[in-house]
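Give me the 3D structure for PhnD/SsuA/transferrin family substrate-binding protein.
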Amino acid sequence: MFRKLVPALAITLVTAFSAMAEPVRFAVTDIEGLEALQQEFGSFQKALEEKTGLDIELIPVSSRTAAVEAMNAGHVELVLTGPAEYVIMKQLSDPRIVVAWQRPDYFAQIAVLANGPIRTLKDLKGKKIAFGSVGSTSQHLGPAQALADQGLVYGKDYEGVIISRNVAAEALIRGDIAAIGLNFGHLNSIRKAFPNAAFAVVARGRDLPNDILVARKDIPEDVYVKVREAFLKHGNELMSAVIEGEDNKKFKGGIFITDIKDSDYDYVRSMYRTIGVENFSSFVE
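Predicted structure for PhnD/SsuA/transferrin family substrate-binding protein (285 residues):
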């Protein structure tokens, strides 16, 4: 009987070792290409490996849709995404929430020329307002919601146009559009890029829901627990590693929030409805 048990035990150990050796694959929806991903998250990758004892592998995805497909196909375990993307991803993949990544001063605003004709929100009626990336939390949904909160109906009281940020700033300066919807950090960038122009804010939204790290719904429980506990117990060290990335400076001063639930993103769902989207089964294109 002992002889029979030895091979069985060996197979069990080999299987367990193989499972342990499998890397935990980590993707980010708004970074394209492995080189850019490594530049932004290389330090974080090493820190998370140290705190969890897991082998963390960075996996580039070409789009938010590709991230969902990779998760559903079992090609990634962890995905960091924005609040607008999470709402759609929840519908398509039903991932588990790991932790929220807070971004200080993460809110939407409506900017106009300080010396231009727009002084109040009422002046925007019948005018063109530029939004950034379609479906973006802080460049599209958030600004539209900030206007709706003040009584301006999307697509009715004004004409919304999708224009990239710097091009929109140039159009605003020329007078081709009346305002730009964007977040706090983007407005600061525009002020640096166009030092001879002065901008004013006529509307601000509430702080937006945080970016969120989610796990594939069938992730091994021990892996899920190890990752969550790493953020809970070593949040400061992990955040220090995150903000070594240049674009990740947006998280500076923020914290990781483990007490987070799906209903915390209902505000994002209301923003989608503001722009006329009622079905969350596909990304807004």
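The chain is about 45% helix and 20% strand. Let me know if you want a second pass.
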